[in-house]
Amino acid sequence: MNEQNIPPLLIPPFLPIFTIMSTHHPKQSHLQLKSLFDLLYLRLCRFADLLIADSAMAEDIVQKVFINYECEDDDFPAIKMFLYKEVLNACQEHKATVKTAFLRAEVGGEINRAIAALPEGCGKVFKLSYVEELKNEEIAAEMSMPVSWVKTQKARAQELLHWRLKPETFLVLNFFLSIAE
């Protein structure tokens, strides 16, 4: 079967580089790899799409799995099972990455909303201290207030945030505040 008889969807642009990328003795010939690709590519894409519900990312994951397989030095006797397992692992890693980014954005948004809701003096002192990283003396000079007032406003801001944020969100905030000091 030559490349002209295969629908374009089954031959992704990276397939010809398999033979170029391989610096070791290939475990399979280009034709064997192409046959394996033709047989499993769409099935693996559907499998990945079921796992992550993102067709474009599913195709990217499957392509990376095939590239990684070609670059692998080991010879896998159960290649079909290996490829499915690799796609499953890559999809789980992708989902974890997306979930982490979502949680960061969610926690960051919650913290930013709580800071924005602080009384004016507290909020300004908090931002100058932890966002701008100014020292108490610098904040006092900028706001024309005594250093003791700055310290009181920082403590008040932390107390208000403690009550306004979920406990786990406040722990995250407190962790970053302790690093900043």
From TrEMBL:
One of its GO terms (molecular function) is sigma factor activity. Keywords: Sigma factor, Transcription, Transcription regulation. Residues 110-157 form the RNA polymerase sigma factor 70 region 4 type domain. Belongs to the sigma-70 factor family. ECF subfamily. Pfam families: Sigma70_r4_2. This is RNA polymerase sigma-70 factor, ECF subfamily. It comes from the Bacteria.
